[in-house]
Predict the structure.
Amino acid sequence: MSDTHAQSVAFVRESFIPEQAPPARETGAIRWVRHNLFPTIPNAILTLLALYVIYVLLSGLLPWLLGGVWNAGSLSECREITGAGAGGCFAVLTERWNQLIFGFAFPQTEYWRPLLAFVLLFVAGAPALLPDLPRRLLILTALYPFVAYWLLWGGTILTPVSAFLGVLAGYFAFKATDRWSFALSLGAAVVAAVAVWWVGGWVASQERDFLAIQRIQSRDMGGYMLNMILGTVCISLSLPFGILLALGRQSRLPLIKYVCVAFIEFVRGVPLITLLFVANVVLAYFLPPDTNFDLILRVIIMITMFASAYIAEVIRGGLAALPRGQYEAADSLGLDYAQAMRLIILPQALKISIPGIVNVAVGLFKDTTLVSIISMFDVVGMIRGPILASTDWNGVYWELYGFAALLFFVTCYGISQYSQWLERKLATEHR
Amino acid sequence: METANTRAPDRSQLKVSDEVAIEIDGMNKWFGNFHVLRDIDLTVYKGERIVVCGPSGSGKSTLIRCINGLEEHQKGRITVDGTVLNSDLKQIDKIRSEVGMCFQHFNLFPHLTILENCTLAPIWVRKTPKKEAEETAMHFLEKVKIPDQANKYPGQLSGGQQQRVAIARSLCMRPKIMLFDEPTSALDPEMIKEVLDTMIELAEEGMTMICVTHEMGFARQVANRVIFMADGQIVEQNEPEAFFNNPKSERTKQFLSQILGH
């Protein structure tokens, strides 16, 4: 068409009309409001309604938040300060802060220990949670449980050290006998670990004061710290157990398969609270008298069992979603079962399962508040028990439960944001 | 494939020894009550290039999947490179590390890069040092003409490229035998040639190959034996020229007229 000229056709425009500014009502804020808030009469009504609801909410909430009292010794003092105003009595949070976070029996002088453990949690968690960090840093993650145990429960340093040495001995025994069958080297690892633990336990019981920090009983743990302990330990334990259960459920050996199926179906079919009652009350009838089986440990076992059954089912979904070709390709290259699972199947199945796993983890973390029912003083237990029962603060519901909700929301939202970041990070299928 | 046909058949340099690579003796397989493979007897010599064809459901894929133990046979005896295939996992893994396999749907590992796909088995199964495994991988990736994609993920490659990576991944294990299970069936037409060319090159180097394929041009050019299967049995086997020009059984004639007749 390049040889079409004005002379040879009826009309060809050769000069263009300059651009004009759009009419004011079609630009900027006015346009946005018109198109998004008031495009039609029903939408305009909805917009006005929404504005009214927002106004009602804020007019209730803002005076409560902004007019709140942060310094007072009791609810009646709060009332005196606010007078007829609607301000909240947040003084309970400042006055009982330590109790909300650490429980009421944790020695004040030792608060630095859980705080340090909390900070170290991020240092230790980073290598396991961020795929970009060098693998070598995982040693920090491996050390953390022992350090955290020592910081929280105290006692002689010999206890965590011997526990760590036991794990190390087991690991090396496993490595050294790697060439034998899997079962044999697993046996060797267990024997080595138990031997070291036994010796270490004896030494620790003789030298109770060697590099010791103040010993703290499990029953003195409380507040949000207890939720963090239970949540962190149970989530990190239930993932490996869940993986084993999911693989066991797929096993070709009937014994393994049906044990796993029975475990999963039983645990999933029972409310967590009944398991916690079993941990708290019923177990005591079965254990020999005078056995001092730590309550936190019992609760950890129960919550871990509960969560791993759920995680097993989530991972089973991920395993089922993988095409059969992946198993066949791994097989045809000569990889054995453990290698195929570890290198090919699980990395993909776990990636698919991330949303489900995080869902279970978030649910589990919030479920740790159920321990308040079996008279453990986690943050909800503290609020329900010592704080609300005290004459000073009886009646401060909104502020306390709102604070607990905020604590959990911040943590769970953080977990959720991390998981979404991880999903994007691991996405390799897109072009 | 026409493109493959235009190349002059040059079978003179493709030597076949009388050493046995695979020996299948009276093999039977059932899927539940369905008798998929019936009394299969087959001897494959080192350096042989065998094309297996036949209508769908005839058991071709199942036959080659039995050779590396992806499917279990119920009766008869399979010997691969001197190792008897039985239910012993160690034996099966030994055979699998000597036998490479390419699948219709490539089955690359999507969470690993191309290079990692190729080095994984040598590192974990053969215990090759990582550096050496990577050199081998690059060598074979060059051979299939995609060294520049080494650090991409499978999802970023075209189908033809993915299948060539799958071939390279198998070759990195230095297999003695290669099995191809309809390697071009899932490909767009313009990508079939690049995969076939790779396979032809492999054949010319003397690799023992069994290919389940419908690419009759490929069969004419490189195969030294074509096997026709129907209803779980080997109906006819012959040299390609004789097989295509002079089929003996009615079933073969019917099949050939259907796939060559247009």
Summary: Chain A touches chain B at residues 323, 325-326, 328-337, 339, 343-344, 347-348, 351, 426, 428-431 (CB under 8 Å).
